[in-house]
């Protein structure tokens, strides 16, 4: 038996994913491929005359909340001024010890509030030990 999805369209299999915390905990030590795709909506546009505080968005998949050096995957995207909806993806391989967790972080330097839309996803697959 597999855990039941929280809502229609959601799928997960295996014991490592905690939907409450948003963390994937490695059941065994090994190499895992991680992928996240976030659909992001900018909630308010910068008004003319306001200083530009930044227009980049950094998305990371981190082991143990980014406390370990060189244990994360990341991408940085520039947000175009004419658009409200962005899709940002990160994919790569990380080595986790059994019991370590990985999760997604968003570093918002866009200067306006952002919302992660439904349809975004986060996955982890054990490649080998």
UniProtKB/TrEMBL annotation:
An individual GO BP term: positive regulation of D-glucose import
The cellular location(s) given in this protein's UniProt record come to: Secreted
Q: Which Gene3D superfamilies match?
A: 2.60.120.40
Report the sequence similarity comment from the record: Belongs to the adipolin/erythroferrone family.
Taxonomically, the superkingdom here is Eukaryota
GO molecular function ontology, one term from the record:
hormone activity
| Signal sequence, renumbered to the chain | none
- Every copy of the C1q domain together lies at 1-129
Q: Per its record, how is this protein called by name?
A: Erythroferrone
Which GO CC annotations does the UniProt entry carry?
A: extracellular space
Recite the lineage of the species: Eukaryota, Metazoa, Chordata, Craniata, Vertebrata
Q: Which UniProt keywords apply?
A: Disulfide bond, Glycoprotein, Hormone, Hydroxylation, Secreted, Signal
What InterPro entries does the record tag this protein with?
Adipolin/Erythroferrone-rel (IPR052136), C1q_dom (IPR001073), Tumour_necrosis_fac-like_dom (IPR008983)
Say where the protein is mainly found: secreted
Q: Which organism is it from?
A: Chionis minor (Black-faced sheathbill)
